[in-house]
Specification:
heterodimer; A: 275 residues; alpha/beta; 12 strands; globular; B: 335 residues; 73% helix
Chain lengths: 275, 335
């Protein structure tokens, strides 16, 4: 999953090379801006995310991470700018249009139903069906079989799919939420604060799962506060400050201190910004 | 990975598995014990088991209405009032008593009116809760009081002279019992095998999560309360048939028995958990206890309401104990 330095996106890029870059990227945003009234939440952000890449978006509170994520997942429409998926311009008016373009989002609250089992949570709203003509009913055998395949083969976890979610650990709950996104067979998964408030073991479980998914060719975008975690697992880290993308770093060329400084001041005292 | 392996073994050991199955189906051993107790203490109760089941039909339909609301994380205090009001309103349209309106004698129009009245009240309940954002307790309490009062405002004497087909629906024991069992069967199938049914469980488990996975929760709440209103109206129709006339106090106090039946049957007070088969067991239990009280020499008619309250109290106590035991067993293996 190593990314050549030349492939890295240049923010606010212009010129004829843009089309080529858009074609080679799994997901590209170009000059994306979002206003809420007079407040500019995201301003002129351009970036590429490559196929099978783990790309992290970090930033302080109010940096614009959530707004950018919501534009990619169809919750908000951009005020200006363009999103490209597999080189083609796309417009998402709602989350289901993002889903139609194989982009799934796992939100921080996970949207799980505690009283229901893992398989039902994974397939809620999209159950496999069986029957004749208009008389279609839920095919529970198929539901459990497919849920087991997702947990065992896609996520590599031996969890009983009939276990109620209420009795799972934080890490296992995160897996179920990721499992639900896999049910739609996406090629991009956006994870909102996937390791927030998790124990060390649970964080490791989630990080291993992210690596597994990337190995399967899925592009992962992580929106996170946890810089330590993204330094270990992301291929590249985009830093947002007050709505602007101030830098994109590779983990091996940066450290915790530098990322913290970028997140809190938007610049580096040494002046090392990779423009 | 290591934390996952053996999770099920630790969580659901053989003994725990049996315990969980027992807890989830607690109604059946309890019903068995109650049946034995009644058989020993008040054997005359079972002189006509068909009569017990026939008497269970209206309360059964109300338990079903309440169960649906409870499963969705809501509840409906107005079901008894809807049953009573829709029965009296339709009785006024169809009846030939001096103070009745007597607008028609066509029983089919009567069926249509009673269903329409029930569904309209349920629909308004749903809209006020889902769209206006009123608390379900306050909304349905307001309608309980409103329609109890409306019953009295409409009629204070029993309504007689109803078309025979109209009263035969609830007045023919085997038809009424069969109808109730079919409705339970259909609702059970719908809850288990349709996206609508699973959405009801999802809504009851977490309204926010249900919304986030794409369920139109507002629409679902309105549909649930409308169905609850329809089931309550059918209960009113069955009560009318059971008695043969429409008594002015029809439906009064039935909401508490409906709550007790649903809770004893294992329907969670907090939504998202419970089976319709359990609710049916709750209905039979409530009706057997009611019949035993009516047949008992030791308990007078004036004490029955108090005993009903105690039954409800025991039901809630059982539910609380069951929930705690269940959580303890399952949590013992969680990591």
């Amino acid at each position: 999953m190593s990314i050549e330095r030349e492939d890295l996106t240049v923010k606010n890029s212009t010129g004829s090379g843009d089309t080529d870059r858009a074609e080679m990227s799994k997901l590209r945003v170009e000059n994306l801006t979002k206003h809420f009234g007079r407040i500019v939440a995201v301003e002129d952000v351009s970036l590429d995310v490559h196929s099978s890449e783990v790309f992290a978006l970090v930033g302080d509170n109010g940096a614009g991470k959530s707004t950018l994520m919501n534009m990619l997942s169809g919750v908000h429409e951009p005020s200006e700018g363009q999103i490209y998926k597999d080189g083609k311009p796309v417009v998402f008016s709602n989350p289901s249009e993002a889903r139609d373009n194989d982009i799934e989002t796992v939100y921080q609250d996970l949207a799980l139903m505690d009283d229901l089992d893992i398989a039902t949570n994974i397939f809620m709203g999209q159950f496999p069906r069986t029957g004749f003509g208009p008389l279609q009913v839920i095919d529970w055998d198929e539901t459990y079989e497919r849920a087991e395949t997702i947990m065992m083969e896609r996520l590599g976890r031996d969890l009983d799919i009939k276990t109620e979610v209420e009795f799972l650990s934080g890490g296992q709950r995160q897996l179920v939420a990721i499992g639900r996104s896999l049910a739609f067979d996406p090629d991009v998964i956006i994870l909102d604060e996937p390791t927030s408030a998790l124990s060390v073991d649970a964080t490791r479980l989630v990080q291993d799962t992210i690596d597994t998914l990337a190995d399967q060719g899925i592009t992962i975008i992580i929106v996170s506060h946890n810089i330590e975690s993204v330094l270990k697992h992301a291929d590249r880290i985009g830093v947002l400050f007050r709505g602007s993308l101030v830098d994109i770093k590779q983990p091996e060329e940066t450290d915790l201190e530098e990322l913290n400084e970028l997140m809190t001041t938007g610049t580096l005292s040494s002046g090392r910004l990779d423009d | 990975m290591a934390t996952d392996q053996g999770f099920m073994r630790r969580t659901f050991g053989d003994r725990d598995d049996v315990m969980l199955t027992l807890l989830d189906n607690m109604i059946w051993p309890i019903l068995g014990l109650v049946l034995i107790g009644v058989l020993v203490l008040v054997p005359q109760t079972f002189n006509s088991f068909e009569l017990i089941l026939w008497g269970a039909v209206p309360i059964g339909l109300l338990v079903l209405a309440e169960s649906l609301c409870l499963l969705s994380g809501h509840f409906d205090l107005s079901i008894g009032s809807i049953a009573g009001f829709s029965a009296i309103f339709t009785g006024m349209v169809l009846g030939t008593c001096p103070s009745c309106w007597g607008l028609t004698t066509n029983p089919w129009i009567g069926f249509g009116i009673i269903l329409l009245v029930g569904s309209l009240i349920g629909f308004v309940n749903g809209v006020m809760i889902a769209k206006v954002g009123l608390n379900p307790f306050l909304q349905t309490l307001a309608f309980l009081i409103t329609f109890e009062g409306a019953k009295t405002a409409l009629q204070t004497q029993p309504i007689t002279g109803l078309p025979s087909l109209y009263t035969q629906v609830g007045g023919t024991p085997r038809f009424a019992i069969g109808f109730m069992l079919v409705v339970f069967f259909v609702v059970g199938l719908v809850l288990r095998y349709t996206s609508f049914g699973q959405a009801v469980y999802a809504l009851g488990s977490s309204e926010n999560s249900a919304r986030e996975v794409g369920i139109d929760t507002e629409r679902l709440i309105i549909i649930i309360y409308t169905i609850s209103g329809i089931l309550s109206a059918v209960a009113g129709l069955m009560l009318t048939g059971f008695v043969g006339v429409v008594p002015p106090l029809i439906g009064e106090g039935l909401v508490f028995q409906a709550f007790a039946g649903a809770v004893i049957g294992g329907i969670s007070l907090f939504g998202g958990r419970g089976k319709i088969t359990g609710a049916l067991g709750g209905v039979i239990l409530i009706q057997v206890v009611q019949s035993a009280l009516n047949n008992s020499q030791l308990i007078g008619a004036t004490q029955i309401q108090m005993i009903n309250g105690i039954v409800l109290f025991v039901a809630i106590l059982l539910y609380s104990t069951q929930s705690k035991l269940r959580s303890r067993i399952l949590a013992s293996g969680a990591v």
